[in-house]
């Protein structure tokens, strides 16, 4: 019987994480000797394949053959890892798409509301102090705080992590984190890639993009914290346009017009937002949280990365105007990042082949 690699994904659900899982499955299906299947959970009577994933034409199942010849790749979400505990023989691999997602989901699932409220007390005190000082010392989000809180735990004793022999990191941020928290763990980097839809739009409009640019700043409005609004309120003469609730076409149309993309989110993995923005000709400005701290994940100059302190508002404001009036020169500084994005498919294939070699010895 042919050996099988199962990749766990939520039924009929589309976000960046499941997209990365399907992209990985597609490459495994093409370059491996294994039977590759998406293991959808929970079981549903309707088609579990989201319309955005039908293009991959992957086999799927609601059941797993639990034997030691097969492999199961599990997303890092705590509930998925707990679900996988019921399989006793299959070799298990964690796909670390988001460090923060694991920590936050573990915190919610393992603690009652009362205990969670008690644990959060220091966070609220620090946040109140920072707010009183007008965030002079920076903005501490709950996600930042939980990462600090879990630094006091030894991850090698977490049963949901102990079940896995190998770890896949989607970002250098995740690679570094897992290596530090799980000493001697086998961790391999497999970076994902942009959606085919965006690549097609880019190829179609590549010559038009420089001509359509306006003095607009687009920004990630779904994962941003209070600092982004401090930037917006600092100068009412700048046109800021949020990216929220837009279709793929609407978003690309906005990114084609804007010259700058701000992302002051928590960067739980190698985010798609900055990469999409770069592809459509934006200079990217970020904070230094999560994957944004790592040059390999967000390869832009330190001049475009800022700590979230109000002391930096004037510097960010100056940079925005500099980009507006010297756009061609500034966007040249993004060329390395852009070239990296255009080469993502080749890189992922190479990394997957290295991963498959590793499986032969497990």
Structure commentary:
There is one protein chain. With 362 residues, this protein is of the alpha/beta class. It has 2 domains: 4-106 and 155-193 and 344-359, Rossmann fold; 196-342, Rossmann fold, CATH 3.40.50. It has 16 helices and 11 strands. β6, α8 and β7 form a beta-alpha-beta unit.
> What is the CATH architecture assignment of the largest domain?
3-Layer(aba) Sandwich
Quick check: average pLDDT? 95
**Strand sequence of the main sheet, in spatial order?**
3-2-1-4-5-6-7
Query: Tell me, what is the CATH class of the largest domain?
Result: Alpha Beta
Fourth CATH level, the homologous superfamily of the largest domain: Glycogen Phosphorylase B
For the sheet with most strands, the description reads: 7 strands, parallel
Number of domains: 2
Q: Compute the number of helices.
A: 16
The gyration radius over C-alpha positions equals 21 Å
SSE order and pairing:
Blueprint: E1 4-10, H1 16-31, E2 35-41, E3 59-61, E4 71-75, H2 78-84, E5 91-96, H3 99-110, H4 113-119, H5 121-132, H6 142-150, H7 159-162, E6 164-169, H8 172-181, E7 186-189, H9 196-205, E8 216-220, H10 226-234, E9 239-243, H11 248-257, E10 260-263, H12 272-279, E11 283-286, H13 313-325, H14 327-331, H15 335-342, H16 344-359
Parallel strand pairs: 1-2, 1-4, 2-3, 4-5, 5-6, 6-7, 8-9, 8-10, 10-11
Quick structural overview:
By secondary structure, the protein is an alpha/beta fold. The chain is built from 16 helices and 11 strands. The protein has 2 domains: 4-106 and 155-193 and 344-359, Rossmann fold, CATH 3.40.50.2000; 196-342, 3-Layer(aba) Sandwich (Rossmann fold), CATH 3.40.50.
